[in-house]
Design goal:
Blueprint lengths: L10 H7 L4 H25 L5 H16 L3 H10 L5 H14 L7 H11 L5 H14 L5 H12 L5 H14 L5 H10 L5 H14 L5 H10 L5 H14 L5 H8 L9
Helix pairs in contact: 3-4, 3-5, 4-5, 5-7, 6-7, 7-9, 8-9, 8-10, 9-11, 10-11, 11-13, 12-13, 12-14
Protein backbone atom coordinates (compact mmCIF):
# COMPACT_ATOMS: atom_id res chain seq x y z
CA UNK A 1 0.00 0.00 0.00
CA UNK A 2 2.76 2.45 0.94
CA UNK A 3 4.31 2.32 -2.51
CA UNK A 4 1.06 3.64 -4.01
CA UNK A 5 1.09 6.83 -1.90
CA UNK A 6 2.37 10.17 -3.21
CA UNK A 7 5.92 10.93 -2.11
CA UNK A 8 4.91 13.92 0.03
CA UNK A 9 2.51 11.92 2.22
CA UNK A 10 3.96 11.13 5.65
CA UNK A 11 3.22 7.63 6.91
CA UNK A 12 2.91 8.93 10.45
CA UNK A 13 0.17 11.31 9.35
CA UNK A 14 -1.72 8.48 7.63
CA UNK A 15 -1.55 6.31 10.73
CA UNK A 16 -2.62 9.17 13.00
CA UNK A 17 -5.76 10.14 11.07
CA UNK A 18 -6.81 6.61 10.09
CA UNK A 19 -9.61 5.82 7.60
CA UNK A 20 -11.43 2.75 6.38
CA UNK A 21 -10.17 3.12 2.85
CA UNK A 22 -7.08 4.62 1.29
CA UNK A 23 -9.01 7.51 -0.32
CA UNK A 24 -10.60 8.37 3.04
CA UNK A 25 -7.20 8.37 4.67
CA UNK A 26 -5.70 10.68 2.05
CA UNK A 27 -8.60 13.09 2.41
CA UNK A 28 -8.21 13.16 6.20
CA UNK A 29 -4.48 13.69 5.85
CA UNK A 30 -5.01 16.64 3.49
CA UNK A 31 -7.61 18.07 5.86
CA UNK A 32 -5.20 17.81 8.79
CA UNK A 33 -2.55 19.67 6.79
CA UNK A 34 -5.07 22.37 5.87
CA UNK A 35 -6.05 23.06 9.48
CA UNK A 36 -2.56 22.73 10.94
CA UNK A 37 -1.75 26.49 10.52
CA UNK A 38 -5.08 27.37 12.14
CA UNK A 39 -4.29 25.18 15.14
CA UNK A 40 -0.85 26.80 15.42
CA UNK A 41 -2.43 30.28 15.38
CA UNK A 42 -4.88 29.33 18.11
CA UNK A 43 -2.06 27.94 20.27
CA UNK A 44 -0.09 31.17 19.87
CA UNK A 45 -3.15 33.19 20.82
CA UNK A 46 -3.53 31.09 23.96
CA UNK A 47 -0.10 32.27 25.10
CA UNK A 48 -1.72 35.70 25.49
CA UNK A 49 -4.73 34.40 27.39
CA UNK A 50 -5.72 36.05 30.66
CA UNK A 51 -5.84 32.56 32.16
CA UNK A 52 -2.49 31.36 33.52
CA UNK A 53 -3.41 27.63 33.19
CA UNK A 54 -4.28 28.24 29.53
CA UNK A 55 -0.96 30.00 28.93
CA UNK A 56 0.84 27.16 30.69
CA UNK A 57 -0.81 24.57 28.46
CA UNK A 58 -0.05 26.59 25.32
CA UNK A 59 3.55 26.97 26.48
CA UNK A 60 3.88 23.19 26.64
CA UNK A 61 2.95 22.98 22.96
CA UNK A 62 5.57 25.59 22.03
CA UNK A 63 8.24 23.84 24.09
CA UNK A 64 7.55 20.58 22.23
CA UNK A 65 7.98 22.41 18.92
CA UNK A 66 11.15 24.13 20.11
CA UNK A 67 12.56 20.75 21.06
CA UNK A 68 12.21 19.78 17.41
CA UNK A 69 14.32 22.77 16.39
CA UNK A 70 11.72 25.32 15.33
CA UNK A 71 12.90 28.90 15.82
CA UNK A 72 9.57 30.73 16.27
CA UNK A 73 8.34 28.49 19.09
CA UNK A 74 11.70 28.95 20.84
CA UNK A 75 11.17 32.71 20.77
CA UNK A 76 7.74 32.20 22.28
CA UNK A 77 9.26 30.14 25.08
CA UNK A 78 11.77 32.93 25.70
CA UNK A 79 8.97 35.49 25.85
CA UNK A 80 7.03 33.30 28.28
CA UNK A 81 10.03 33.38 30.62
CA UNK A 82 8.91 36.93 31.47
CA UNK A 83 5.33 35.91 32.20
CA UNK A 84 3.72 37.49 35.27
CA UNK A 85 2.61 34.08 36.54
CA UNK A 86 5.32 32.30 38.51
CA UNK A 87 4.41 28.80 37.29
CA UNK A 88 4.39 29.81 33.62
CA UNK A 89 7.68 31.62 34.05
CA UNK A 90 9.33 28.70 35.86
CA UNK A 91 8.17 26.25 33.19
CA UNK A 92 9.68 28.43 30.45
CA UNK A 93 12.93 29.00 32.35
CA UNK A 94 13.31 25.29 33.03
CA UNK A 95 12.84 24.45 29.35
CA UNK A 96 15.36 27.06 28.27
CA UNK A 97 17.98 25.34 30.45
CA UNK A 98 18.20 22.58 27.84
CA UNK A 99 16.91 24.39 24.75
CA UNK A 100 19.67 27.03 24.73
CA UNK A 101 23.39 26.61 25.46
CA UNK A 102 26.47 28.81 25.66
CA UNK A 103 27.39 30.13 22.23
CA UNK A 104 23.89 29.82 20.74
CA UNK A 105 22.52 32.88 18.96
CA UNK A 106 19.76 33.11 21.56
CA UNK A 107 22.13 32.84 24.54
CA UNK A 108 22.52 36.61 25.18
CA UNK A 109 18.76 37.14 25.00
CA UNK A 110 18.10 34.22 27.34
CA UNK A 111 20.81 35.47 29.70
CA UNK A 112 18.98 38.78 29.94
CA UNK A 113 15.74 36.96 30.71
CA UNK A 114 17.48 34.95 33.43
CA UNK A 115 18.94 38.09 35.03
CA UNK A 116 15.49 39.68 34.99
CA UNK A 117 14.08 36.64 36.85
CA UNK A 118 16.80 36.88 39.49
CA UNK A 119 14.81 39.86 40.77
CA UNK A 120 11.57 37.92 41.14
CA UNK A 121 10.14 37.89 44.65
CA UNK A 122 9.26 34.19 44.35
CA UNK A 123 12.32 32.26 45.47
CA UNK A 124 11.35 29.24 43.35
CA UNK A 125 11.59 31.41 40.23
CA UNK A 126 15.05 32.63 41.26
CA UNK A 127 16.07 29.02 41.93
CA UNK A 128 15.41 28.21 38.26
CA UNK A 129 16.84 31.44 36.88
CA UNK A 130 20.24 30.89 38.48
CA UNK A 131 21.12 27.56 36.76
CA UNK A 132 19.76 28.94 33.49
CA UNK A 133 22.10 31.93 33.71
CA UNK A 134 25.03 29.65 34.46
CA UNK A 135 24.06 27.47 31.49
CA UNK A 136 23.89 30.23 28.87
CA UNK A 137 26.31 32.96 30.03
CA UNK A 138 30.06 32.80 29.71
CA UNK A 139 31.99 32.96 33.02
CA UNK A 140 32.97 36.55 33.77
CA UNK A 141 30.67 38.02 31.08
CA UNK A 142 30.99 41.75 31.75
CA UNK A 143 27.41 42.70 30.89
CA UNK A 144 25.93 39.90 32.96
CA UNK A 145 28.20 40.62 35.94
CA UNK A 146 27.30 44.32 35.82
CA UNK A 147 23.59 43.52 35.70
CA UNK A 148 23.82 41.14 38.67
CA UNK A 149 25.86 43.68 40.63
CA UNK A 150 23.08 46.22 40.17
CA UNK A 151 20.69 43.78 41.84
CA UNK A 152 23.08 42.92 44.67
CA UNK A 153 23.87 46.57 45.39
CA UNK A 154 20.35 48.02 45.27
CA UNK A 155 19.20 48.77 48.82
CA UNK A 156 15.61 49.10 47.64
CA UNK A 157 15.52 45.44 46.58
CA UNK A 158 14.51 42.92 49.24
CA UNK A 159 17.39 41.30 51.11
CA UNK A 160 16.62 37.74 49.93
CA UNK A 161 16.94 38.81 46.28
CA UNK A 162 20.20 40.67 46.99
CA UNK A 163 21.57 37.65 48.84
CA UNK A 164 20.84 35.34 45.90
CA UNK A 165 22.40 37.83 43.46
CA UNK A 166 25.61 37.81 45.51
CA UNK A 167 25.61 34.03 45.31
CA UNK A 168 25.37 34.28 41.52
CA UNK A 169 28.38 36.62 41.50
CA UNK A 170 30.34 34.06 43.45
CA UNK A 171 29.45 31.39 40.90
CA UNK A 172 29.88 33.44 37.69
CA UNK A 173 32.68 35.94 38.25
CA UNK A 174 36.23 35.08 37.29
CA UNK A 175 38.59 35.10 40.22
CA UNK A 176 40.14 38.55 40.49
CA UNK A 177 37.43 40.26 38.40
CA UNK A 178 37.68 43.74 39.91
CA UNK A 179 34.08 44.83 39.49
CA UNK A 180 32.74 41.69 41.16
CA UNK A 181 35.30 41.74 43.98
CA UNK A 182 34.48 45.37 44.83
CA UNK A 183 30.74 44.68 44.85
CA UNK A 184 31.08 41.65 47.10
CA UNK A 185 33.42 43.45 49.49
CA UNK A 186 30.88 46.26 49.82
CA UNK A 187 28.30 43.72 51.03
CA UNK A 188 30.53 42.05 53.64
CA UNK A 189 29.44 44.54 56.31
CA UNK A 190 25.81 44.73 55.19
CA UNK A 191 23.18 45.23 57.88
CA UNK A 192 21.35 42.08 56.71
CA UNK A 193 22.83 38.94 58.25
CA UNK A 194 22.00 36.70 55.28
CA UNK A 195 23.61 39.16 52.88
CA UNK A 196 26.78 39.27 55.02
CA UNK A 197 26.99 35.50 55.14
CA UNK A 198 26.62 35.15 51.38
CA UNK A 199 29.05 37.98 50.65
CA UNK A 200 31.81 36.48 52.81
CA UNK A 201 31.43 33.09 51.16
CA UNK A 202 31.40 34.72 47.70
CA UNK A 203 34.52 36.76 48.49
CA UNK A 204 36.45 33.54 48.90
CA UNK A 205 35.38 32.60 45.36
CA UNK A 206 35.95 35.88 43.49
CA UNK A 207 39.01 37.49 45.10
CA UNK A 208 42.50 36.65 43.91
CA UNK A 209 44.64 34.34 46.01
CA UNK A 210 46.82 36.56 48.16
CA UNK A 211 44.53 39.61 47.81
CA UNK A 212 45.64 41.56 50.88
CA UNK A 213 42.60 43.85 50.93
CA UNK A 214 40.22 40.92 50.90
CA UNK A 215 42.22 39.03 53.51
CA UNK A 216 42.37 42.04 55.79
CA UNK A 217 38.61 42.51 55.48
CA UNK A 218 37.98 38.86 56.28
CA UNK A 219 40.23 39.08 59.34
CA UNK A 220 38.20 42.04 60.56
CA UNK A 221 34.84 40.29 60.22
CA UNK A 222 36.08 37.30 62.20
CA UNK A 223 34.86 39.33 65.19
CA UNK A 224 31.30 39.51 63.82
CA UNK A 225 28.64 38.67 66.45
CA UNK A 226 27.27 35.89 64.24
CA UNK A 227 29.02 32.51 64.48
CA UNK A 228 28.19 31.58 60.86
CA UNK A 229 29.75 34.82 59.62
CA UNK A 230 32.89 34.17 61.65
CA UNK A 231 33.15 30.60 60.39
CA UNK A 232 32.62 31.68 56.78
CA UNK A 233 35.30 34.35 57.18
CA UNK A 234 37.79 31.77 58.48
CA UNK A 235 37.10 29.45 55.54
CA UNK A 236 37.34 32.24 52.95
CA UNK A 237 40.49 33.62 54.53
CA UNK A 238 42.08 30.16 54.49
CA UNK A 239 41.29 29.90 50.77
CA UNK A 240 42.76 33.28 49.87
CA UNK A 241 45.76 33.48 52.21
CA UNK A 242 49.20 32.51 51.06
CA UNK A 243 51.21 30.24 53.30
CA UNK A 244 52.52 32.06 56.35
CA UNK A 245 50.34 35.16 56.07
CA UNK A 246 50.87 36.59 59.56
CA UNK A 247 47.62 38.58 59.79
CA UNK A 248 45.52 35.63 58.67
CA UNK A 249 47.28 33.20 61.01
CA UNK A 250 46.84 35.51 63.99
CA UNK A 251 43.15 36.14 63.26
CA UNK A 252 42.37 32.46 62.75
CA UNK A 253 44.22 31.39 65.91
CA UNK A 254 42.24 33.98 67.82
CA UNK A 255 39.07 32.19 66.79
CA UNK A 256 40.13 28.64 67.64
CA UNK A 257 38.66 28.90 71.13
CA UNK A 258 35.64 30.81 69.93
CA UNK A 259 32.75 29.69 72.12
CA UNK A 260 30.40 32.66 71.80
CA UNK A 261 26.87 31.93 70.73
CA UNK A 262 25.52 33.47 67.54
Amino acid sequence: MWSALPEDVAREAILSVGGNRLNDTLKLSALARKFKPMVADITEQHLCSSSAPTRLEALGVQIAKAERGYAKPLQMVIESARDDDADVRKHALSALCYLVAKGDDEAPQVGGVAVHSLQHLDSTVRDVARPLLLAVAQPGDGEVISAVIQIASDDEIVDEVRRDAIGVLGAMAIRGQHEAVSAVQACVRDTCLDVRREAIAALGDVADHGDENAIRLLCDVMTDPDRVVRSAAIIACSVLSTSGNAAAVEAIIGRLDDSRSS
